[in-house]
Amino acid sequence: MKVKYELLKKEKNTMGRNGILHTNHGSFKTPMFMPVGTLANVKTLTPEELYEMNSGIILSNTYHLWLRPGADIVNKAGGLHKFMNYKGPILTDSGGFQVFSLAKRKDITEEGVKFKSHIDGSDLFLTPEKSIEVQNKLDSDIAMSFDECIGYPADYEYAKMSTERTLRWAKRGKDVHNNENQSLFGIVQGGEYEDLRKFSALETSKLGFDGYSIGGTSVGEGKDVMYKMIEYATPYLPEDKVRYLMGVGDPIDIIEGVIRGIDIFDCVLPTRLARHGNAFTHNGKINLRNSKFKEDFTSVEHNCDCYTCKNYTKAYIRHLLASNEILAGRLLSIHNIRFLIKLTEDLREAIDNDNLLEYRDTFIKNYQKN
Amino acid sequence: MKVKYELLKKEKNTMGRNGILHTNHGSFKTPMFMPVGTLANVKTLTPEELYEMNSGIILSNTYHLWLRPGADIVNKAGGLHKFMNYKGPILTDSGGFQVFSLAKRKDITEEGVKFKSHIDGSDLFLTPEKSIEVQNKLDSDIAMSFDECIGYPADYEYAKMSTERTLRWAKRGKDVHNNENQSLFGIVQGGEYEDLRKFSALETSKLGFDGYSIGGTSVGEGKDVMYKMIEYATPYLPEDKVRYLMGVGDPIDIIEGVIRGIDIFDCVLPTRLARHGNAFTHNGKINLRNSKFKEDFTSVEHNCDCYTCKNYTKAYIRHLLASNEILAGRLLSIHNIRFLIKLTEDLREAIDNDNLLEYRDTFIKNYQKN
């Protein structure tokens, strides 16, 4: 079965919307934040911990799994769900963003991308067909089309050429995709240019994918430009398909994305911040290494319903961080991921109540207080 | 309330015995393996994971907590149980072993031990009184007397002098101990010498502690000598008090210890091995980094009831190890600790059936097969 997006409610004042995405591994409500399990695990966490946070879907990285342990081993294990013991929906990206962010040197042609492995420097060649072949073997619920992630700022002519090529790559990937139980999403590119984003959204939609994402964001473009990139595209995407904004996990960006019609977000931010001792709170990020928390016997955030806040104090987590204990990163990962998932739950409620803009203004006021 | 040891059954052919230790934080059956939570956490694990493994009691290190975060902070948190969110019994050691194993230079006098911090090299002075004062503040269920851990081999005259001093230290500690809810255990020293071990066991017993441990083991003396150190002491310890062998966690040593009348063991071995990719099995230790496990889609050990074996394959854990994912150490810590706790459960059954020696022989035959 392919995923099916069910639209539940459109907010009155914005493009915000509530829905449900039905998959072969269960349904989940949108808007939703998707934790990242790069190497077939969300760093330090078990699936049970993710279920407990109401995680609807997780992401895993095709590029990383292609290199380690290799798609064939995951396939022999019975696919990614069995390999990593995750019973909920899984989305795999296409490798396009990793080629952009990790590869030291790359040579992009019509055929695909030649680049060096970030692990051992060996020669790699990723094409739209190869990316889909690998994802077919991984057997995720949702595969992403292989695209070129354009940097920022981008020359208009290059952005145009690349966006058109990404479209051809999307078609090539779609043509070879052959996994009846896996959905395939298209990716909108177009850099920072309104006409290219519109063109990409319309033409990608014409190819007919099971869902659509907006790529080429979180590449250093700044918030205002990112919000525009979304605005340029979402009006031209079909209303009956789910929309996913790639690589975005800052709380304010999630809110602004939802306002502009986005349903799903992913980002390594909550786990990466956690490993460095940072925690999201509604009054902004705090760093638990700070000595002012030495004797603070309250939870990371008052009223937070996560496992960490229900059981541990800032003083304890600070002690673990000061002692380089791994448990600190684990506890803060739980808090930070739950924070973003809870944020999407609150956004759903705001959509139901048609007060999304009010919710945003209050959130930002508190978040930027410190 | 002080801990109370209830003797349930003596094995016919050995000194092995089954019992229950009653504490203020619940009762647990002995023999029992005690996981080590050096810095107020069993590395990478939560209390819930320890409860699920049937962990009866955990150990935490006075020396480490004294330095970080400091006894006063733990005390202000409401004691160690509240600080680390552990609801079961906790034993704290005295710091004696850490002075022996971690301190670069040390100066031992009748008063106590002057040494340098292993963290920042600053001057520290630990005395029997100070150790007890710190443990009183930590508010563990069981405090250990401050002792000198004699190395191996030891000069007889030195061992004699040190053992007599440890006895005086035990008395000094007992005199200042003032925590009605905390039990205090004595430690038998005496190096490798039969008469000194006997002397230490008898004289320490005369002081009247709530339980007794055998120290000065696991200092490079080899298995045969260690087993003798136990044999020299246990016959002279009171039968109605629990007996704890310090720092021993090799499966065969646990079995040999139980045969010689030991009730409780502790060791960092299961968690340390786990972080290096090693797993206990009944057919000996295996290293999951080995490439032969690349496509091994079976659990670490067949029929093991731990969370890891019920949910993950060797191929997956090998992948996590190869990718330096922290989850690997966490999953193997769960397996290894559960392996040792399950071993003590099996030993209890063997004691009930009066076939402890047979159990040992079969275990060793399998364990040393590879």
What labels describe this entry?
homodimer; 15 helices; three-stranded antiparallel β-sheet; TIM Barrel; 2 domains; alpha/beta; eight-stranded parallel β-sheet; 16 strands; 370 residues
Care to count the β-strands of chain A? 16
Low-confidence stretches of chain A: none
Structural class of chain A: alpha/beta
Give the CATH superfamily of the largest domain in chain A: Queuine tRNA-ribosyltransferase-like
Measure the end-to-end span of chain A. 47 Å
| Strands in their spatial order, largest beta sheet of chain A | 4-14-13-12-11-10-6-5
Taken as a percent bin, the fraction of beta residues of chain A is: 15-25%
Helical element count of chain A?
A: 15
Calculate Rg of chain A over CA atoms. 20 Å
On the 0 to 100 scale, the average pLDDT of chain A is 97
Written account of the structure:
2 copies of one chain form a homodimer. Chain A is an alpha/beta fold and 370 residues long. The first copy, chain A, has 2 domains: 4-266, Alpha-Beta Barrel (TIM Barrel), CATH 3.20.20; 268-370, no CATH class. The first copy, chain A, has 15 helices and 16 strands. Chain A has helices spanning 47-52, 62-67, 71-76, 80-84, 96-102, 128-138, 156-176, 194-207, 223-233, 251-259, 269-275, 307-311, 314-322, 326-352, 356-367, and strands at residues 4-10, 17-23, 26-30, 32-35, 58-60, 90-92, 106-108, 113-116, 123-126, 142-144, 183-188, 211-214, 242-245, 264-267, 278-279, 286-287. Chain A has an 8-stranded parallel beta sheet with strand order 4-14-13-12-11-10-6-5. In chain A, strand 1 and strand 2 form a beta hairpin. In chain A, helix 8 (194-207) packs across helix 9 (223-233), helix 11 (269-275) packs antiparallel against helix 14 and helix 13 (314-322) crosses helix 14. The longest helix of chain A is centred in the C-terminal third of the chain and has 27 residues, at 326-352. The first copy, chain A, is globular. Chain A starts with a strand and ends with a helix. The A-B interface holds A 39-41, 43-46, 64, 68-69, 73, 76-78, 83-85, 294-295, 297, 311-313, 315-316, 318-320, 322-323, 325-327, 329-330 and B 39-41, 43-46, 64, 68-69, 73, 76-78, 83-85, 294-295, 297, 311-313, 315-316, 318-320, 322-323, 325-327, 329-330.
